[in-house]
From TrEMBL:
Coiled coil: 363-390
Organism per entry: Phocaeicola sartorii
Keyword check for Coiled coil: yes
Protein name: Tetratricopeptide repeat protein
Chain positions of TPR repeats: 209-242, 397-430
Keywords (A to Z) from UniProt: Coiled coil, TPR repeat
Residues annotated as transmembrane: none
Length: 504
């Protein structure tokens, strides 16, 4: 099981059987096939994504050979993949030779699907004993647990491999074992453990882009940027137009906040990609983050002008992003057209109304006319109110936080604090997340009493946050004046000159 069948499907005998079968189906003429022939055809259809055709081939197999164990197993696995567990159990009862290796694996798979892991493991343990801890058997068991995302049991069977084999040298000579270890550890919580195995793989296959990209991913997950780019550069030396590598290298620069270099990678990606959607989306987002709104608009317009590749919701998001960019650039009328288009496409989506509210907040902040400013703030409040009406009660705390954050980001602390205060009142279990923002907002509004109130709450309820306030580790390190004031206040508190408790 789990072996590569692709070369088998090039075999002339298989091709002849496949042609006879497809001729029978097309011409509706009866024909006889051995069970193995039909099962191979079903495997071929499965490999090529033709699952309905695979099921039809197995149905014919069971009509011609109703007790064939391999066909029954294929049918059971197909039913399990479709979530039809009761039907799978019924078919399983038709298997007469339940001690067959494949049947025992199938029994274990079905138990795993029902979360009866200990029972499944007992079956696997017995199979391992019966097959004298054969390497391929242990690897088959390991793969079952990897696919089922059972990390504890996966690690136990890796320990079993270590107990029965020399795992220092065996991966160097057994490609299947090496690939499994590379794949598993590179996707696990310990990508560092994949790195030695990936180097083994690259010693054998130095021109493998797949291995170089996996190595780069593992280093990236550990924020090891120099090693990350070294791996991706080796990959690009092999193929300088490899789309996966260019994407990963762009992501690495983005994660390290080297946004201009990230843009360079995605521009290269756009130049070599037939489907440019991924590159354009990344570039638009990066330019928005860099506040280069004109450049962002140019890439968003390229995406909007595409006739395919995006859902209706994604297109609405692009219109709303364009609206925000125009708002920052002072292009109010064009931005208003874009936000209207987004709302027309997704009028019942609360997120879209929050973005619309943000558009009006930005326009209000940029307005020098007081009446125009108030008008746009009223428009913003209408959009936010509509968003809250459309939001289920259990999600309203998050919606209130997002709305407050819109005002906070645009330095409208009076409105921001109203929403953060509402969270404190209606959703006290989520209040901790608002304390620092409220304290900062009241500091900016020069309201000392509520500022001290939330500073006291932070000290009492989230002391870890209080400890970092005013330091280089603070969440608001960019405001030097605020941090300097905090350091002075905290020093007075530590000396006993200020009693925080009286502000609770």
């Amino acid at each position: 099981m789990n072996y590569d069948m692709s070369s088998f499907f090039e075999d002339p005998e298989f091709k002849e059987a496949l042609a006879r079968y497809e001729g029978m189906v097309e011409n509706h003429t009866p024909a006889y096939f051995e069970a193995d022939e039909l099962i191979d055809i079903a495997e071929y259809y499965t490999l090529t994504g033709r699952h309905k055709d695979a099921d039809q081939a197995i149905e014919l197999t069971l009509r011609l050979h109703p007790e064939n164990t391999d066909a029954l197993i294929f049918r059971i696995r197909s039913l399990m993949l479709q979530g039809r567990k009761e039907e799978a159990q019924t078919v399983a009862q038709l298997i007469s030779n339940s001690t067959d290796r494949e049947c025992r694996f199938l029994q274990a798979e079905m138990l795993i699907s029902e979360n009866r892991i200990e029972e499944a493991d007992e079956i696997f343990k017995q199979v391992a004993i019966d097959e004298d801890y054969d390497l391929d058997t242990l690897l088959d068991i390991l793969l079952e647990y990897i696919r089922a995302h059972q990390e504890t049991y996966t690690e136990q069977w890796i320990d079993c491999l270590h107990a029965h084999f020399d795992m220092q040298t065996l991966p160097k000579t057994n490609q299947r074992l090496l690939d499994i270890l590379c794949d598993y550890y590179s996707m696990s919580r310990r990508p560092d453990l994949a790195i030695p195995y990936l180097h083994m793989a690259l010693d054998k296959h130095p021109y493998s882009i797949r291995y170089w990209n996996m190595l780069g991913r593992c280093h990236l997950r550990q924020d090891q940027y120099e090693e990350t780019h070294e791996a991706f550069d080796f990959s690009l030396a092999i193929d300088d137009e490899n789309e996966e590598t260019l994407t990963l290298k762009g992501m690495a620069y983005q994660q390290a906040m080297q946004l201009e270099k990230a843009c360079e990678c995605y521009i290269r990606l756009a130049n070599v990609s037939e489907n440019k959607t991924r590159a354009y989306l990344a570039l638009a987002q990066l330019y928005i983050e860099m506040r280069e709104h004109a450049s962002a608009i140019s890439y968003i317009e390229k995406l909007i002008n595409q006739k395919s590749g995006l859902s209706k919701y994604e297109r609405a998001e692009l219109h709303s992003d364009t609206a925000l960019c125009h708002a920052y650039l002072g292009h109010t009328e064009e931005g208003y057209k874009q936000i209207e288009q987004a709302l027309k496409m997704e009028e019942n989506d609360p997120d879209m109304h929050i973005v619309a509210g943000r558009f009006f907040v930005i326009v209000a902040q940029k307005s020098e006319d007081s009446e125009e400013k108030e008008k746009n703030l009223r428009n913003a409040e209408e959009q936010f109110a509509h968003a809250l009406e459309l939001t289920p009660k259990e999600e309203q705390s998050d919606a209130l936080f997002r709305i407050g954050s819109v005002y906070f980001d645009e330095h409208n602390y009076e409105y921001a604090n109203q929403y953060f205060e509402q969270i404190n009142k209606e959703f006290p279990e989520d209040a901790n997340d608002t304390y620092l923002l409220l304290a900062y907002g009241y500091y900016q509004l020069q309201k000392s009493v509520p500022f001290m109130h939330y500073l006291a709450k932070i000290n009492k309820e989230v002391p870890d946050v209080y400890a970092t306030m005013g330091t280089d580790d603070s969440e608001l390190t960019t405001d030097d004046c605020f941090n300097e004031a905090l350091r002075a206040i905290k020093e007075d508190i530590s000396k006993g000159n200020i009693n925080l408790n009286k502000y609770l």
